[in-house]
Amino acid sequence: MTYVFQFGIVFDRFHELLQGAWLTVQLSAISMALGLSLAIVCAFLRTTGPRPVRWIVAAYVEMMRNTPFLVQIYVIFFSLPAIGLRFEANQAAVVAMVVNLGAYATEIIRAGIQSVPIGQIEAGRALGLTRIQVYRKIVLFPAVKAVFPALASQFILLLLGSSVVSAISAKELTAIANTMQSTTFRAFEVYIVVTVMYLAIAVAFRGFFAAVYWLVFVRGRA
Amino acid sequence: MRLSHLLAAGAAVLALTLGSGAADAQALDRILKDKKIRITAQVDSAPFGILGKDNKPTGSEIETARQLAKDLGVELELIQVSGAQRIPALLSDRADLAISSLSITSERAKSVWFSSPHGALSIVIGGPKSVNIKSAADLAGKKIGMSRATLEEQEVPKIAPPGTNIVFFDEHAATQQALLTGQVDAIGSAAFLINDLSKKAPDKQLEVKFTVVTAYYGIAVKPGNFDLLQWVNSWVFVNKHNGVLAKIYETHTGVKLVDLPAM
User: Fold this and answer.
1) A177: nearest CA in chain B?
2) pLDDT-based confidence at B21, cuts 50/70/90?
3) Nearest to B48 by CA among B114, B100, B86
4) Which residues contact B224 (CB under 8 A, 6 or more apart)?
5) Domain limits of chain B?
6) Which of A10, A78, A218, B251 keeps 20 to 30 A from A55, CA to CA?
């Protein structure tokens, strides 16, 4: 038996896939920005906050890192409406991605913070800087620089993980592909095209991160 | 082994396959002589075919098969198949009949022969009483959920007016959960599922808004088996009029069987 490829069906509806890809990029970009902000705050609290606050942050991080992403999405989309917190599919997707990325990135940045020599922090304190000033001006920059490759990888994982939000009817790239596949029965063609699209998006993001690294950490502080 | 040997062996296998695949004009006689009929059983499509409490196949289609074998006076052998294997099982002579909620379509009729319909499945729009939907036109501006790779996925978009927001979930459980939590206004679904759901969540006051389409199920035979198909058609006729088919259907699906047209 020979299988006849029919990519025509996929390319006739390529604009739908492009719309899906654009939503994937938007969801991912917003989640990366908000997730990173959340992680920077949490990493600060986790390392220098009062003990109870450290415990709360630790609990959040461990809860997110030890439960499936799909279940987290279901909780936000299906369970929270019971207590009056209703998110649209796209909002629920972003919330899930932000809290998920926030937890992983908190641990990555914490590792970066711990790599900063303690003497550098003590020097800052000796100069009369406040805790927050020390964190912002002395610790954060070298910490993020040290873990930037790990952060970038986590961001890409988030981008790829965004395919899971199709489960709550967000119309991103995978959701469009699933629908197209189940109406045309051209699973092979659809998913091959979508694989290439994810690859292109991921490579573009990696290029962007490399540019950011160069601009901020290499040229900025040569 | 040399290539020519391989080719010769391949040709022999092919000839055998084709030979055994030829229509069996005396299928009914053979079944009566062997005192055994082989019928497909799809056990992953509740309430038509499921595994019961004791892991024994049951459901409306499987009980229909049992009744048919009993009336024919032969032993029943259930051939377990997945949804995609229902037709191949017939064509490869693993089963004599397919009774597995196989809806009659002109596409499928190219590869198998259907009896008159013995069952049906209605795709409906269902939602809470408070949501005002009376006909397809009222779907405009509403968020309608449904599961992928289902009959509703094919049929509802055809009748939905512009401005209908149709959203897809990967499985029935998620679609139903979206309805119960108010993430969608209504869902497209098989009628019996709406019925099931409204029993499980009586406080949501779910109801059937309107019927989108009704698909009719037939019993399928391998093309060429005239005598078997003729007997099956007579059997469907008798059991449609004596109410046996309707009773089996209602016992398992919880909804009434619609009027079955003749074919």
Assistant:
1) B148
2) very low
3) B100
4) B22, B23, B24, B25
5) 24-118+218-253, 121-215
6) A78
Task: Please answer yes or no on whether A86 and B182 come within 8 Å at the CB atom.
Answer: yes
Amino acid at B67: Q
Q: Which CATH architecture has domain B24-118+218-253?
A: 3-Layer(aba) Sandwich (3.40)
Compute, in degrees rounded to 10, the torsion defined by CA atoms A121, A127, A128, A132. -30
Predicted pLDDT at B106 = 87
Is the full-model pTM beyond 0.90?
Answer: no
pLDDT (0 to 100) of residue B22 = 47
Q: Is B128 helix (H, G, I), strand (E, B) or coil?
A: strand
- Number of other CB atoms surrounding residue B114 within 10 Å: 22
Residues of chain A with pLDDT under 50: none
- On whether the B121-215 domain is CATH 3.40.190.10, my answer is yes
Would you say A178 and B167 are in contact if contact means Cβ atoms under 8 Å apart?
no
CA dihedral sign, ordered A121, A125, A131, A132: negative
Residues of B in contact with A168 (CB under 8 A): 169, 174, 178, 183
Render pLDDT for A2-59 as a digit per residue (tens, 0 to 9): 677 888 888 999 999 999 999 999 999 999 999 999 999 999 999 988 999 999 999 9
Helices (H), chain B: 3-21, 27-34, 60-72, 86-91, 151-159, 172-180, 191-200, 226-241, 244-253
Out of A78, A167, A171, whose CB is closest to B170? A167
Query: For residue B181, which amino acid is it?
Result: T
B-chain residues within 8 Å CB-CB of A82?
181
Residues 6+ apart with CB under 8 A from A172: A20, A21, A23, A24, A27, A93, A162, A163, A165, A166
Tokens of B256: 């009434």
Q: Which of B153, B154, B168 lies nearest to residue A169, judging by beta carbons?
A: B168
Asked whether the beta carbons of B150 and B187 are under 8 A apart, the reply is no
- Domain residue limits, chain A: 24-173
**Which residues on chain A are in Cβ contact (under 8 Å) with B181?**
77-79, 81-82
Q: Do A168 and B177 touch (CB under 8 A)?
A: no
* Residues of B with Cβ-Cβ distance to A81 under 8 angstroms: 181-183
Residues A176, B194: Cα–Cα separation, whole Å: 26
Across the interface, whether the CB atoms of B154 and A183 are under 8 A apart is answered yes
* Residues 118 through 147 of chain B touching chain A, CB cutoff 8 Å: 145
Task: Write the class of the CATH domain A24-173.
Answer: mainly alpha
Selection from B246, B223, B225, B224 nearest residue B118 by Cα = B246
The yes/no answer to whether this complex scores an ipTM above 0.85 is: no
| Residue B91 CB contacts under 8 Å (≥ 6 apart), including other chains | B21, B111, B112, B222
